[in-house]
Amino acid sequence: MKVFEEIQAVVDKKDKKEIKKILLIGRTGGGKSTIANVLVKKDDKFVVSSSSGSSTKSTQVEKFEEDEIKYQVIDTVGLCDTAMTKEKAMSELAETCRLIKGGLYRILLVTGDRFTEEENKMYYTMKETIFDHKFSHFTTIIRTKFPGFLDQEECKKEEENLEKTNPDFFKIIKECKDIIFVDNPPLIGLPKSIEANRDVRECSRKKIIESFIPSDEKYYPPNLRQLSEKFVAHFEEKEKLEKELKETKELSNQDRKKMKERIKELEKEIEVEKARGIRIICTVM
Ligand SMILES: Nc1nc2c(ncn2[C@@H]2O[C@H](COP(=O)(O)OP(=O)(O)O)[C@@H](O)[C@H]2O)c(=O)[nH]1
Ligand SMILES: [Mg+2]
Fold this sequence. Notes:
Blueprint: H1 2-18, E1 20-25, H2 32-40, E2 60-66, E3 69-75, H3 86-99, E4 106-111, H4 117-128, E5 139-143, H5 152-165, H6 167-176, E6 179-181, H7 191-210, H8 222-247, H9 253-284
Parallel strand pairs: 1-3, 1-4, 4-5, 5-6
Antiparallel strand pairs: 2-3
Helix pairs in contact: 3-9, 5-6, 8-9
The structure holds guanosine-5'-diphosphate (GDP) and magnesium ion.
GO molecular function: GTP binding
Protein name: 24823_t:CDS:1
Coiled coil: 224-276
C-alpha cells in the first residue's frame, strides 16, 4: 500500500508539474470564452456571450492535451470586466489566485476588432497592479474576428496598419513580441456553414498552439501570490478553528475563549486582504 501511495505521489507530482496553465484576459466581448472552447475542442463548455447580453458569469477552467502536453485553460471574468460589482470581482480575483497557484505558462490577452483606449489603459494598470514587469514576457496578444488570418500578407498588412492607426496598441504588441490573428466564427446557421466555421476554428486553434514556445518557465505574479497565500492561509486557519470548536467536546472554557478571539482576529485580517484586493480591482476596473 505504501509503495502504491509513493508511486501515486510521484505520478501526481509529475501530473501537476506538467500542466501548463493558460490564463485568458481581456475586455468582455473580445472572444475569450470562444477561444477557450476552440482550444479544448468543445462547442459550449465555456459560456459565450450572446446578443441577449448574457456572458461568462464566473471563472471557468478546462483541461486539454496536445502533443502529449497537458494544458489548462482559465477563462476569467472580473479582471477587465466593468459590468460586475466590486465584491463579485473580488471573489473572482480570489478564485483566479487559487487557480493560478503554481504559476502560469502563458497569458493570452484577447482583443476583438478594435483595441480601445480603455483596453490600452487596462493593460498598463494590470501590469502595475495584478502583474509586474514580467507580464509582457508571458503575454501573447490574440486578435480575434480577423477573417484574413490564414494569409500571412494580410496579417502583416494589418500589423503595419495598426502601427499607423493605433500606435498605443502597436507599442504593446512590440512589448509582448507577438500578435496572433485568428477567427473563430460562431457555430450557427446552415449545417454546411457550421461545418465550414468548425474548419476555420480548427485553423485558429493550430495557429494559437503553434505560437506556444516549449518552456518550463512559469509565472506566478507576486501580487497575486501574496494575496492568494494570505487569503488561503487565513481562511484555512479560520475553518480549522471553527471545526475544532464545534467538534471537540472536551475543550476548556479558556481554550474556547482563546479560539474565538483568534477567529475574530482572522476575520479582521481576511477583511484587510479583501480590501487590498478590492483596491487592486478598483484600479483595474
Ligand atoms: N466572427 C467572429 N465572432 C467571434 C469571434 N470570437 C468571438 N466571437 C463572437 O463574439 C461574441 C463574444 O464572444 P465571447 O467568447 O463570449 O467573448 P468574451 O466576453 O471575451 O468571453 C460572441 O457572439 C462570439 O460568437 C471571432 O473570432 N470571429
Ligand atoms: Mg467570456
